[in-house]
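Continuing the batch. This is chain 6 of the set; chains 1 through 5 are on the previous pages. Same settings as before, nothing changed between runs. Recording input and output for traceability.
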Amino acid sequence: MQQKSSGFTLVEVAIVLVVIGLLLGGILKGQELIDNARARSLGR
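Output for chain 6:
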């Protein structure tokens, strides 16, 4: 007989945290690229 659990498993929580980390990392890297491009264009 299986019990029906209503919470998240540890694996599900870990996957969500990894996805959030990848999204934040991509956003921060993109912002860095934009800042570098802006600095280069102002430097000319």
